Amino acid sequence: MKLSQRITHLTGGGSDGWDVFYRARRMISDGYAVTELTIGEHDVRTDSAILEAMDLSARQGHTGYAMVPGTDLLRDTVAARLQARTGVPTIRHNVLITPGGQSALFAAHFAVCDPGDVGLYLDPYYATYPGTIRGAGAVARAIETTSKDAFQPRAEQIDAAAEGAVSLLINTPNNPTGVVYSRRTLEGIAEVCRRRDLWLISDEVYDTQVWEGSHISPRTLPEMAERTLVVGSMSKSHAMTGSRCGWIVGPEEVISHLINLATHTTYGVPGFIQDAASFALNAGSALEEQIAAPFRRRRELAVDILKAQNTVGLVPAQGAMYLMLDIRATGLGGEDFANALLDTHAIAVMPGESFGSAAAGHIRVAMTIDDERFAAALSTICEFATDLANRPAVAS
């Protein structure tokens, strides 16, 4: 029996660069004490008030099938939130509630890509991006950004890759780099999208985690609302990663077709989870700031630690819960460095190569453990890198 190429070619074959993560998890299972700085999981779990709202909704009977597009309450709440943040008129019919941001990413590509179409994405990228595009039947084409540009994509790079493409996927604030795209960057992206007639899929799940500058949704730029699909989620903004509640915001016609897709795939999100999400969003910015505060604080700790040495470079850490560190001075690539760090100090980080070739020679550090342990681990990483950089050269 034969499986579809769509499923067997989802990851593109070869290593996905996550071997260090899996090895660290095996070490933990075997009883080793490993400091994990790998994935973007909050160290402080979902706020008790949100859980109480979820429990109350379930106990009051909202446990049956919910409306497939999402409850009116949550769709209205998401629409009001985006309109307040962007100034772009947004109503319920512009919103589809999805089982998390990942489901929204897939649905968005499924909506705009026919089999064999080219979907563009930027390298470095969140690990699922190319597989998501392939899963929708499209051809995933990477556009490399560069460390010297602080991983800000240039319009001419995108334009050069856009021949035959129908969509472009971007992510700001960015995972893995922590970079927030500037207005100039986004205006360049928008200009290419308009001229090349591209759909823009904008992953904005980190929009509440901005440490420098400001988050600009490309949907706000001239003539972009009609060609932009915004992906959002409760996962990062409200530490609700396991609740699986996200959304797509876009033109009404697209959303109407995506509701049809949801009817044939996910069949919606549980009502009690949507009620908890509505409660959380209506709690206002104070709760979001409380959830973001540990990462803002740790980012400041990191800046101070990294200033005290000159081996490890910091890609501008403007947003999100990660640091992208340049360790090329050690002479090692990201994967070799991460494996050596795990072996010698039991600290697990993600190699830059896990997120594409553009981040080779870098590592990604998640700021997801308490302040004291985080500072100690980052100091150890810097000391380890300095020792490697200063080791005597081996004669050939």
Query: What is the second-level CATH architecture of the largest domain?
Result: 3-Layer(aba) Sandwich
Low-confidence stretches: none
What is the straight-line distance between the termini? 53 Å
User: With helices defined by DSSP (H or I, 4 residues minimum), what is the helix count?
Assistant: 14
Q: Structural class per helix/strand content?
A: alpha/beta
Q: From N to C, what is the helix and strand string?
A: HHEHHEHEHEHEHEEHEHHHEEHEEH
- Proportion of β residues? 5-15%
Organism: Ruegeria denitrificans
Protein name: aspartate transaminase
EC number: 2.6.1.1
Catalytic activity: L-aspartate + 2-oxoglutarate = oxaloacetate + L-glutamate
Write the layout of secondary structure elements.
Blueprint: H1 5-8, H2 19-29, E1 35-37, H3 48-59, H4 72-86, E2 95-98, H5 101-112, E3 118-123, H6 129-135, E4 139-144, H7 155-161, E5 165-171, H8 183-196, E6 199-203, E7 228-233, H9 234-237, E8 246-249, H10 252-264, H11 271-282, H12 285-307, E9 313-314, E10 322-326, H13 334-345, E11 347-351, E12 362-366, H14 371-389
Parallel strand pairs: 1-11, 3-4, 3-5, 5-6, 6-7
Antiparallel strand pairs: 2-8, 7-8, 9-10, 10-12, 11-12
Helix pairs in contact: 3-11, 4-11, 5-6, 7-8, 12-14
Give a verbal description of the structure.
- By secondary structure, the chain is α/β, with parallel strands linked by helices.
- It folds into two domains: 5-45 and 286-388, Alpha-Beta Complex (Aspartate Aminotransferase, domain 1), CATH 3.90.1150; 62-283, Aspartate Aminotransferase, domain 2 (3-Layer(aba) Sandwich).
- 42% of the residues lie in helices and 15% in strands.
- The chain contains 14 helices and twelve strands.
- It has helices at 5-8, 19-29, 48-59, 72-86, 101-112, 129-135, 155-161, 183-196, 234-237, 252-264, 271-282, 285-307, 334-345, 371-389, and strands at residues 35-37, 95-98, 118-123, 139-144, 165-171, 199-203, 228-233, 246-249, 313-314, 322-326, 347-351, 362-366.
- A seven-stranded mixed β-sheet has the order 2-8-7-6-5-3-4, sandwiched between helices. Strands 1-11-12-10-9 form a five-stranded mixed β-sheet, sandwiched between helices.
- The N and C termini lie far apart (53 Å).
- The model has no long low-confidence stretch (mean pLDDT 96).
